[in-house]
Design a protein that fits this description.
Number of strands: 17
Bound molecules: adenosine-5'-triphosphate
Helix content: 25-40%
Number of domains: 2
Shape: globular
CATH class of the largest domain: Alpha Beta
Order of helices and strands: EEEHEEEHHHEHEHEEHHEHEEEEEEH
CATH architecture of the largest domain: 3-Layer(aba) Sandwich
Number of helices: 10
Strand content: 25-35%
CATH superfamily of the largest domain: P-loop containing nucleotide triphosphate hydrolases
Distance between the termini: 34 Å
CATH topology of the largest domain: Rossmann fold
Oligomer: single chain
């Protein structure tokens, strides 16, 4: 189990991590999400042992050391994939992967390199020098380098950020399924809601160096405690509950995702359409209500300036009323 207790860190006088505590069981996958600059990378660096943090981090009975305690900073049983890929540019892709397979007999090595490259759909590039790879291809090789050693704990910093949408889904399935099979514990810093919702057992939301929420992804999604949390999953509207459900007689507000709102004749929430954005299966409609921006999904294009009424299902959303 990974355990952080009261971990704090500052580069100068401004604290970047503020008393972070959580545990993560072996084999579980945790997403760390939050606005840019909230401290996700710094958290991964502290766990890997690259920073002189305060507090304590342990993996089972091993304490994570700090840079001053080691000749080469970083723990050998952890693999950290940072946002820079660090490939050897003049070496072939297969050699870049092979370097991370040190304790494997030579006759098994080629098969293992092939198997790993297939997982990220890079087997056709095995003999190419890394310097000729695109950014996304380099990232795919860096991912398999991280997997090659089968670490006990894997730390991934935005691991699919350079990979096109078309490949990303397949790669994510391959990689996270592989990690589960091998019982490798994993922490992923990400901005991508799909990584949180589809591939994590747990999620941590960070804001300005603090943990705002630590929950299962579905609980986080359906019960966001604040607009900040909900916004990490997409567009969010904040509406007075009274306007949507007058009989409630409440001055509380409710956070709504675009799919929570639907057009209904006679609905009490009246909005003016600003713009419709085609999103494939429907439109994301931006609208305005007394100067407040709102978003809802609609199956057809709605022209600018038309007025529509919007409803939302109270029974489904009552848990989301602000306290
Ligand atoms: N070497 C450094 N010296 C001083 N400040 C730093 C240094 N590295 C990072 N920071 C600051 O620490 C804060 C947290 O940065 P960090 O990279 O952890 O954020 P992040 O959540 O990973 O952001 P992003 O999502 O943009 O990658 C930022 O304000 C950043 O400017």
């Amino acid at each position: 189990m990974l355990e952080l207790s009261n971990v704090s860190f500052a580069y100068n006088s401004d604290p970047i991590l503020k008393s972070i505590s959580f545990t993560l069981d072996q084999g579980k996958h945790l997403s760390v999400i939050g606005a840019s600059g909230c401290g996700k990378t710094t958290l991964l660096e502290a766990i890997y042992g690259l920073l002189s943090f305060q507090g304590e981090i342990s993996w089972g009975d091993k304490k994570i050391t700090k840079p001053e305690d080691r000749l080469v900073p970083g723990e050998p049983f952890i693999k950290y994939l940072s946002q820079s890929f660090d490939l050897y540019p003049f070496h072939k892709v297969s050699e870049n992967v092979g370097k991370h397979l040190k304790s494997i007999p030579l006759d098994e090595k080629q098969d293992r390199i092939q198997e790993l490259l297939e997982m990220v759909e890079m087997e056709d590039y095995a003999d190419m020098q890394a310097k000729y790879l695109s950014g996304g291809q380099q990232q795919r090789v860096a991912i398999v380098q991280a997997l090659a050693q089968e670490p006990e704990l894997l730390l991934l910093d935005e691991p699919f950020s350079h990979i096109d949408q078309y490949r990303r889904n397949n790669l994510r399935r391959n990689i996270f399924n592989y990690l589960k099979e091998k019982n490798i514990t994993c922490i992923v810093a990400t901005h991508d809601p799909t990584e949180v919702l589809s591939f994590s057992d747990d999620a941590i939301v960070m804001k300005e160096g603090e943990i705002m929420a630590h929950e299962s992804p579905s609980h986080l999604y359906f019960n966001p405690k604040s607009r900040y949390v909900a916004t990490l999953f997409g567009e969010v509207s904040e509406v007075e509950a009274d306007v949507l459900w007058p009989s409630l007689n409440s001055n509380r507000k409710v956070l709504l995702y675009p799919h929570d709102l639907y057009v209904e004749e006679g609905a009490t929430l009246s909005v003016k359409v600003v713009k419709s954005y085609f999103s494939g299966k429907d439109y994301l409609v931006e609208a305005s209500n007394k100067g407040e921006k709102l978003f809802f999904n609609h199956p057809e294009l709605l022209e600018r300036d038309i007025e529509v009424g919007l409803s939302a299902d109270y029974n489904k959303l009552k848990g989301r009323l602000e306290q």
